[in-house]
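Help needed: design a sequence for this.
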């Protein structure tokens, strides 16, 4: 009937879970916006599968380059 709370337990959420939650919330907000505005969402026409794929690929390449440079400079300093 009563919940026991363990105060020594760390209730932090991992970064990956936060990113996934944020992504899902953004997608839900876009869906809600689409339903509410209906045909008035013409300014979102640029969001196509090709555009999303390009953004993901460019973002992934930038992140990859960042990680390589970060690894190189951190390993060099260590």
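Sure. Designed sequence:
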């Amino acid at each position: 009937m009563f919940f026991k709370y363990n105060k020594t337990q760390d209730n932090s959420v991992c970064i990956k879970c936060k990113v996934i939650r944020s992504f899902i919330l953004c997608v839900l907000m876009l869906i809600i916006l689409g339903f509410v505005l209906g045909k008035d969402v013409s300014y979102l026409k640029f969001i196509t599968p090709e555009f999303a794929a390009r953004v993901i690929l460019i973002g992934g390449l930038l992140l990859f380059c960042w990680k390589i440079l970060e690894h190189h400079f951190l390993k060099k300093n260590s």
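The chain is about 65% helix and 0% strand.
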